[in-house]
Amino acid sequence: MSKKIYSNPGAALEGLLFDGMTIMSGGFGLSGNPESLIPEIRASRANNLTVISNNAGADGFGLWMLLETRQIRKMISSYVGENKLFEQQYLSGELELELNPQGTLAERIRAGGAGIPAFYTRTGVGTVVAEGKPVEQFDDEDYVRETWLRADLAIIKAWRADPAGNLMFRKTARNFNPNMATAAKVTVVEVEEIVEPGTFDPDCIHTPGIYVDRIVVSTINEKRIEKMTTRPRETV
User: Fold this and answer.
1) Residue 84 backbone phi and psi in degrees, to 5
2) pTM of the predicted protein model
3) What domains appear along the chain, each with residue ranges and CATH number?
4) Which of 51, 77, 65, 72 is nearest to 153 (CA)?
5) How crowded is residue 98: how many other Cβ atoms within 10 Å of its Cβ?
6) Is the N or the C terminus of the chain less surrounded, counting Cβ atoms within 10 Å?
């Protein structure tokens, strides 16, 4: 058996968690959340965490679980609108927030994985996003300098993995996960299925196994829908 494969989510995180660490957590809303690994972080009681993620889950689910136990000190995020606990803790001063435009957050993570310490973007120029950051001109346009994001640990969710750690994601659950896998000292992946070696067409691999340190089969695959909107089916 591959040395990367662990028997359960708790074992996959063993020896990795400590107070004050920075964690990247994949997902967009509730799509592609590491549903099985987050409860293990909660159980560890590791605190004073900085968490880099699109948002902080929703009521009772995802990173919300770590907000409830006050284990998160700072969020680096791009969307906070649906999480009332997130809003409450930020407005009360309990939680520090570094808010990013969505594309900027994605590029900061990608830059961290690519070894690019900083880059320039027009997004946020002339707004609070640019406050305190260097601004330079290129082709007579202002650009704000943004810095990379890196982490001690990335927890991500994929659809399938082989024993070498090569990953495939499914549809929108791909989101921030592949970039986060490249930008942390250690990457732990929960997957729905571990396949036999040689199953993947090399051209269809989304994340090469060189970026993956530990793999575990998911114990939670609820895939909750954050907000469902429906309409009556039209009759002919």
Assistant:
1) -70, -35
2) 0.93
3) 5-122+143-217 (3.40.1080.10)
4) 51
5) 13
6) C
